[in-house]
Design goal:
It is a single chain. The protein is mainly alpha-helical. It is built from five helices and no strands. The chain starts with 7 loop residues before the first helix and ends in a 5-residue tail after the last helix.
C-alpha cells in the first residue's frame, strides 16, 4: 500500500463530509456506518496492489525450479506477471 494506513480514516472522513456537504449523496444510515463503509472500501482498493503482489509471488513460487533453471530474471518475470494480471483484472496500479 503506497499510502500509510493512518491516512485512510482522515481521507474517508473528508470524502464523506464533502459528499454530504455538496449534497452529492444523502445518507440513509448513521454517519458512523457510512464512514466505516467508506474506510473499508478505501482500504480494500488501496491494498489491491499488495494482494496482487502476493498472488504473483505464489504463482512464481510454484514455478521456482523452472525459473532458477532457465536463468530468468525473477524481478523482470515478477513485473511482467504482475502487469499481465493487473491488465486482465482491470486493476489500476
Amino acid at each position: 500500500m503506497r499510502i500509510p494506513r493512518s491516512w485512510v480514516a482522515p481521507m474517508a472522513k473528508r470524502i464523506v463530509r464533502d459528499l454530504l456537504e455538496r449534497e452529492y449523496i444523502e445518507s440513509t444510515v448513521p454517519g458512523k456506518e457510512l464512514l466505516a463503509a467508506v474506510e473499508a472500501i478505501l482500504l480494500y482498493e488501496l491494498t489491491a496492489e499488495d494482494r496482487l503482489n502476493e498472488e504473483v509471488r505464489g504463482i512464481l513460487e510454484l514455478h521456482a525450479s523452472e525459473i532458477e533453471g532457465g536463468g530468468v530474471d525473477y524481478r523482470r518475470l515478477f513485473e511482467l506477471t504482475k502487469r499481465k494480471l493487473a491488465k486482465e483484472r482491470n486493476i489500476v496500479l
